[in-house]
Amino acid sequence: MPVKEFNTQYPVIDTDPHFSRVVRYFRGSDYAAMAACTAAAPGLMLAFEKANPVNGGRHLRGPLRLATFVGAVGGFLYAYQNSSLRFWGWTENDREVAKDMEEMQQLIKEGKPLYGESMMPKHIQDESARNSRFAQLKFSAYPWFNFANHNNHGVDTSKYSS
Question: Roughly how many angstroms between the first and final C-alpha of the chain, as a whole number?
Fold first, then answer.
Protein backbone atom coordinates (compact mmCIF):
# COMPACT_ATOMS: atom_id res chain seq x y z
CA MET A 1 0.00 0.00 0.00
CA PRO A 2 1.54 3.34 -0.98
CA VAL A 3 2.19 5.99 1.65
CA LYS A 4 -0.34 8.82 1.57
CA GLU A 5 1.33 11.98 0.38
CA PHE A 6 0.41 15.39 1.76
CA ASN A 7 1.10 18.78 0.24
CA THR A 8 3.25 20.30 2.96
CA GLN A 9 4.98 23.64 3.10
CA TYR A 10 8.15 22.04 4.46
CA PRO A 11 10.13 19.03 3.22
CA VAL A 12 9.10 15.60 4.50
CA ILE A 13 11.93 13.86 6.35
CA ASP A 14 10.20 10.64 7.38
CA THR A 15 6.55 9.58 7.57
CA ASP A 16 7.23 6.83 10.14
CA PRO A 17 10.30 7.80 12.17
CA HIS A 18 11.81 5.39 14.68
CA PHE A 19 11.22 6.23 18.36
CA SER A 20 14.89 6.87 19.12
CA ARG A 21 15.21 9.16 16.11
CA VAL A 22 12.25 11.30 17.15
CA VAL A 23 13.67 11.68 20.65
CA ARG A 24 17.18 12.47 19.31
CA TYR A 25 15.71 15.29 17.23
CA PHE A 26 13.95 16.98 20.18
CA ARG A 27 14.57 20.72 20.32
CA GLY A 28 15.05 22.82 23.41
CA SER A 29 11.44 23.97 23.04
CA ASP A 30 10.32 20.34 23.28
CA TYR A 31 12.19 19.88 26.54
CA ALA A 32 10.73 23.17 27.82
CA ALA A 33 7.22 21.96 26.96
CA MET A 34 7.87 18.71 28.82
CA ALA A 35 9.06 20.62 31.87
CA ALA A 36 6.10 22.99 31.72
CA CYS A 37 3.59 20.12 31.58
CA THR A 38 5.37 18.30 34.38
CA ALA A 39 5.22 21.39 36.60
CA ALA A 40 1.73 22.47 35.53
CA ALA A 41 -0.08 19.29 36.57
CA PRO A 42 0.77 19.41 40.30
CA GLY A 43 0.53 23.21 40.19
CA LEU A 44 -3.04 22.99 38.95
CA MET A 45 -3.83 20.40 41.58
CA LEU A 46 -2.51 22.68 44.32
CA ALA A 47 -4.50 25.61 42.89
CA PHE A 48 -7.68 23.53 42.90
CA GLU A 49 -6.92 22.38 46.44
CA LYS A 50 -6.52 25.99 47.54
CA ALA A 51 -9.82 26.96 45.89
CA ASN A 52 -11.75 24.02 47.33
CA PRO A 53 -9.84 22.25 50.13
CA VAL A 54 -10.38 18.57 50.83
CA ASN A 55 -9.50 17.30 54.32
CA GLY A 56 -7.80 20.59 55.14
CA GLY A 57 -5.05 19.94 52.58
CA ARG A 58 -3.71 16.86 54.35
CA HIS A 59 -2.71 13.68 52.50
CA LEU A 60 -1.70 15.38 49.26
CA ARG A 61 1.67 13.67 48.88
CA GLY A 62 0.40 10.68 46.85
CA PRO A 63 -1.96 12.65 44.59
CA LEU A 64 0.75 15.23 43.91
CA ARG A 65 3.18 12.49 42.89
CA LEU A 66 0.56 11.01 40.59
CA ALA A 67 -0.20 14.44 39.09
CA THR A 68 3.52 15.00 38.48
CA PHE A 69 3.83 11.62 36.77
CA VAL A 70 0.77 12.25 34.59
CA GLY A 71 2.12 15.71 33.71
CA ALA A 72 5.50 14.24 32.77
CA VAL A 73 3.92 11.57 30.55
CA GLY A 74 1.64 14.14 28.92
CA GLY A 75 4.58 16.49 28.40
CA PHE A 76 6.63 13.75 26.79
CA LEU A 77 3.78 12.81 24.44
CA TYR A 78 3.30 16.48 23.51
CA ALA A 79 7.03 16.92 22.79
CA TYR A 80 7.12 13.65 20.82
CA GLN A 81 4.17 14.76 18.72
CA ASN A 82 5.76 18.16 18.01
CA SER A 83 8.98 16.47 16.91
CA SER A 84 6.98 14.10 14.69
CA LEU A 85 5.17 17.02 13.05
CA ARG A 86 8.56 18.35 11.98
CA PHE A 87 9.50 14.94 10.52
CA TRP A 88 6.29 14.94 8.49
CA GLY A 89 6.94 18.46 7.19
CA TRP A 90 3.83 19.86 8.84
CA THR A 91 5.80 22.49 10.80
CA GLU A 92 9.09 24.33 10.27
CA ASN A 93 11.93 21.79 10.14
CA ASP A 94 15.08 23.38 8.69
CA ARG A 95 17.25 22.17 11.56
CA GLU A 96 15.92 18.63 11.29
CA VAL A 97 16.37 18.50 7.49
CA ALA A 98 20.05 19.48 7.83
CA LYS A 99 20.61 16.98 10.66
CA ASP A 100 18.84 14.23 8.71
CA MET A 101 20.91 14.87 5.57
CA GLU A 102 24.14 14.78 7.57
CA GLU A 103 23.14 11.63 9.47
CA MET A 104 22.00 9.71 6.38
CA GLN A 105 25.03 10.66 4.29
CA GLN A 106 27.26 9.45 7.12
CA LEU A 107 25.43 6.11 7.16
CA ILE A 108 25.92 5.79 3.39
CA LYS A 109 29.65 6.51 3.76
CA GLU A 110 29.90 3.81 6.42
CA GLY A 111 27.98 1.36 4.23
CA LYS A 112 25.23 0.87 6.81
CA PRO A 113 21.51 0.61 6.03
CA LEU A 114 19.75 3.98 6.29
CA TYR A 115 16.99 2.86 8.62
CA GLY A 116 18.74 0.11 10.56
CA GLU A 117 18.83 -3.64 10.14
CA SER A 118 15.75 -5.73 10.75
CA MET A 119 15.34 -9.41 11.50
CA MET A 120 11.65 -9.31 10.57
CA PRO A 121 10.34 -10.67 7.25
CA LYS A 122 9.39 -8.04 4.66
CA HIS A 123 5.63 -8.51 5.07
CA ILE A 124 5.90 -8.00 8.84
CA GLN A 125 7.96 -4.84 8.30
CA ASP A 126 5.25 -3.54 5.97
CA GLU A 127 2.55 -4.30 8.54
CA SER A 128 4.57 -2.64 11.28
CA ALA A 129 4.92 0.50 9.18
CA ARG A 130 1.19 0.60 8.44
CA ASN A 131 0.39 0.27 12.14
CA SER A 132 2.70 3.01 13.37
CA ARG A 133 2.60 5.59 10.55
CA PHE A 134 0.97 8.83 11.79
CA ALA A 135 0.13 7.10 15.11
CA GLN A 136 1.27 10.25 16.92
CA LEU A 137 -2.02 11.83 15.90
CA LYS A 138 -3.86 9.27 18.04
CA PHE A 139 -2.04 9.84 21.34
CA SER A 140 -5.32 10.92 22.95
CA ALA A 141 -6.61 7.36 22.47
CA TYR A 142 -3.41 5.35 23.01
CA PRO A 143 0.33 5.98 22.76
CA TRP A 144 1.86 4.01 19.90
CA PHE A 145 5.47 4.32 18.81
CA ASN A 146 7.58 2.88 16.01
CA PHE A 147 10.22 0.62 17.54
CA ALA A 148 10.73 -1.46 14.38
CA ASN A 149 13.39 -0.98 11.72
CA HIS A 150 11.96 -1.05 8.21
CA ASN A 151 12.37 0.71 4.87
CA ASN A 152 8.84 2.13 4.55
CA HIS A 153 9.39 5.77 5.36
CA GLY A 154 7.62 7.55 2.53
CA VAL A 155 10.67 9.44 1.21
CA ASP A 156 12.95 9.04 -1.76
CA THR A 157 16.29 7.96 -0.32
CA SER A 158 18.20 8.84 -3.50
CA LYS A 159 18.46 12.43 -2.23
CA TYR A 160 21.03 11.26 0.33
CA SER A 161 23.50 9.84 -2.18
CA SER A 162 24.27 13.11 -3.95
Answer: 28
